[in-house]
Amino acid sequence: MHPDLANREIILGVTGSIAAYKACEIASRLTEAGATVRAALTQSAQEFVGAVSFEGITGNCVITSMFDPGLNPEIEHIALAKRASAFLIAPATANIIAKMAHGLADDWLSTTLLATRAPIVIAPAMNTQMYTHVATQENIATLKARGCIFVGPDAGQLACGDVGAGRLIETPAILEALVCALHVDKPLRGKKVLITSGGNHEPIDPVRFIGNRSSGKMGHALALEALRLGAEVTVVTGPHRVPLPHGVETVEVETAHEMLEAVEAHFEDCAVFIGAAAVADYRVERPALDKHKHSDAMLTLSLVPNPDIAASVSLRKRPDQITVGFAAETSHITEHAQDKLKRKHLDLIVANEVGVAESGFGTDTDRAWLIKANEAVVDLGLLAKTELAQAVFSALALNGTGSLKA
């Protein structure tokens, strides 16, 4: 869970959608992350889920009415509106979206939303026809123009049987949108960040491939951090196990050559390139057109080098572009990383230890070092991948005008 959620006061507004039960999971995840969660259920929401569930999950009283006993309607909603770190409306019906867009305040939630200046994240959930109706879309556009952040909805089969947009997006995407909303300083606003992630599958035959153990967790952490800082993010990803954050432009590839082509197509417009993918160093020279049949005979594969993506883009970068690489090493870690920094003409390289239980592919933590040319090596120790992503962007010396300097 992202550290930005700890010690934050989040108002979780739950409205009358059949997806209201999913808000219990959202409340639970926020509480686990160290946030103080105050759930506010509209009257319609209470037809789908009970207040006692949220009280048990959050440990806080649940707001169900403007006129709950002991709740001063003239004061308490204003106090919470001022104190809250952020408002999260999940699920958000067409009704609450319309009330917010038009400034209506006829219950506790809509009144408090009108009074707050905290960031607002909205996760819609409704019938497809309601979501696509021109009135709803105009209301959403109005709220986006005012700075509200929308996450989702997903498309698929809905509870009513219709198929289309309207499903409440999954909880991780909602929490990641909240993380981005909580970070109000956006030094990368207007900048484009290009990231490679995951591994490569180099074909042996139509059913077999050469690959590696990359999970895509580091690429995910970097993409989320770039979003948190306000960047427009494109991720060119090979096969991976971890979904990328909602809001990134995703380009799916398989091989190193496909990854290079996609990077070259997007590199011109980016301010920062981060090569976090575990790019395959070799490929099979002549993949078989038919499946290799099992036999007792040895199978010999001829391997040829793949292109070096980080080195390729570094050679063509402009003075206003920054390139960052990763060096996954098992021994002589900083020495090998320094060599790669120089050979690939990178501005910054992240050396990380792989092949051990707590660091490397598939783990949530990394043993890492940051290295720039002619500067002392920065030993970061063992840290979460989310913290490593923050350290990488901090090393780029972001300033208040959004400019970058490695």
Short description:
This protein is 31% helix and 23% strand.
Regions with little confidence, pLDDT below 50 for 5+ residues: none
Number of domains: 2
Mean pLDDT: 89
The CATH C-level name of the largest domain is Alpha Beta
Strand content: 15-25%
CATH architecture of the largest domain: 3-Layer(aba) Sandwich
Q: What is the topology, as strand order, of the major beta sheet?
A: 12-11-8-13-16-17-18-19
Task: Considering the chains and any ligands shown, give keywords for the structure.
406 residues; 8-stranded mixed β-sheet; Rossmann fold
How are the SSEs placed, and which strands pair?
Elements: E1 9-14, H1 22-32, E2 36-41, H2 51-58, H3 76-83, E3 86-92, H4 94-102, H5 108-115, E4 120-124, H6 128-132, H7 134-145, E5 149-150, E6 154-157, E7 163-167, H8 171-182, E8 192-197, E9 202-203, E10 209-210, H9 217-228, E11 232-237, E12 249-252, H10 256-267, E13 272-275, E14 282-284, E15 303-305, H11 309-315, E16 322-329, H12 333-343, E17 348-353, E18 365-371, E19 378-384, H13 385-394
Parallel strand pairs: 1-2, 1-3, 3-4, 4-5, 8-11, 8-13, 11-12, 13-16, 16-17
Antiparallel strand pairs: 6-7, 9-10, 14-15, 17-18, 18-19
